[in-house]
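so my prof wants the structure for this chain in the tokens format not the other one, which i didnt know existed until like an hour ago. anyway here's the sequence
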Amino acid sequence: MTRYGSRARTPSNRGWPKVIGRFPSQKCSGLVWSEGALERDYIRLLELDPEVTGYQEQPILVRYMYWERGVVCLLDDGASDKVTEPEPGYKAARYYPDFYVERAELPPMLVEVKNEALLTDPSVKRKLTAGYLLAKSRGWEFRVITEEIRQGPLLESARVIQRYSRMEVPACVALRTLQIINAVGEPYTVRQLGERLAGVQGDPRTHEAYVYALVGRGALSLHPQGKVVGPESFVQSVGGGRFGIGAASAGRSVLV
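here's what i got, hopefully its the right format
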């Protein structure tokens, strides 16, 4: 999978100040829109999570109705043009979740990226409940991603890897790298592998950059060991695990 259908809504900064951007995604084979820095940070983690096979921003329109006391009901299933009219005393509303995420061995996720301070807002609570109800009706999970993803070294490690992910790696270097990794029982550090690839006359730092690029493309595994990735991080074949595992499944479930 690359994308789930197409965007149900075009990202916009209308209504309040936020930074609209486009991220060059390898998993989606194109540019992915983000609304704000937190969404962009989450995209970085999606790109490096081996469990994630594809994702789509602004994937679906959720129509729902609500009563002032907090009761929320879906108006349709999001898959057809048939829309139920709201019942007397209820108000109709719309909501666009931020991401749909497909995973290799786990159910798909519908994801909302939201600053922690906004989660107590009544209108936000209604939207999250509507998103949860739609996801549940389809057998998906619903997750809320907050600034918690910025804690620890994972996000900064993702930035390091993605700095090199679009770097062109010579085919002979990629092949030689995989041969070295697969031939030994113990993992190399990035520095050791760079020196081995560079040989006598090459530049070890250039070859370290090639290693990061191969990790970013999913050809190698990188184990940061609780630190920001760097020359002393261990490198293995993909079968040994991968940098970023579980990152995109972070966040909290919504229970109603």
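also thought this was worth mentioning. The longest strand covers residues 20-25.
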